[in-house]
Recover the amino acids of this structure.
């Protein structure tokens, strides 16, 4: 009975704990003792970025050409919602990040957890998870934070790192890798976090056709890694 009462008290304490707001990547590095790798690729990052151009069927080819046609002209004026509806959602679909077989996808999903005694709460612009309907059970490695070129609020990398830290708590294994993407305007950056270390790729400009094709290929590579390796590791 005493143990149950203590658990209830701990739950109430966490529920009433004030959320710590982080707007800058540097604040998270200092607060959680993170290590950032930029000019040295980890084996997992090398594997992820080692891709061939995607093979499209006729429908995918049509969508790609349609979305790319006026992208360079329009993207600088889009809001975050415009980015999501007019472009990002199609890239995610072309990247095979769709639902099915116990996988669910979420836009604007609020996730929270207490990490090293600090309560974090963040809105993941896009994520994949094991779940059902709107129930998130196990966050799966891919968080997508995207911001427009005009009036961005907060640093996308700071939001992404908080998503990673929260996912490590929810998945109960901080050593398994988490995969993510940060997007600001036309610039896409890929990130992998292992424990307290995160590796950041070079940027890809989605307004360049070859770069956009590589972005889609990298997303497809993630889905392949998820299906062939990562899900099994997280569900052990």
């Amino acid at each position: 009975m005493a143990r149950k009462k203590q658990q209830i008290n701990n739950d109430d304490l966490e529920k009433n704990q004030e959320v710590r707001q982080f707007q800058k990547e540097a604040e998270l590095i200092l607060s959680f003792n993170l290590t950032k790798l930029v000019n040295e690729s980890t084996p997992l990052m090398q594997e992820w970025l080692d891709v061939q151009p995607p093979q499209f069927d006729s429908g995918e080819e049509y969508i790609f050409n349609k979305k790319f046609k006026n992208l360079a002209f329009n993207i600088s004026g889009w809001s975050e919602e415009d980015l999501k509806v007019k472009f990002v959602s199609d890239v995610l679909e072309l990247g095979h990040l769709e639902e099915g077989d116990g996988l669910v996808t979420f836009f604007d999903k609020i996730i929270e957890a207490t990490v090293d005694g600090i309560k974090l709460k963040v809105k993941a612009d896009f994520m994949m998870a094991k779940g059902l309907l709107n129930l998130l059970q196990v966050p799966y490695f891919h968080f997508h934070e995207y911001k427009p070129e005009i009036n961005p609020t907060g640093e996308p990398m700071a939001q992404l790192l908080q998503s990673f830290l929260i996912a490590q708590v929810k998945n109960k294994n901080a050593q398994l890798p988490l995969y993510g993407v940060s997007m600001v305007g036309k610039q896409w950056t890929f990130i992998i976090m292992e424990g307290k270390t995160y590796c950041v790729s070079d940027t890809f400009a989605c307004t360049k056709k070859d770069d956009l094709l590589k972005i889609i290929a990298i997303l497809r590579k993630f889905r392949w890694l998820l299906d062939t390796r990562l899900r099994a590791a997280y569900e052990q």
Observations:
- Residues 209-234 form the longest helix (26 residues).
- Residues 19-234 form one domain.
- Residues 204 and 211 are 6 Å apart (CA to CA).
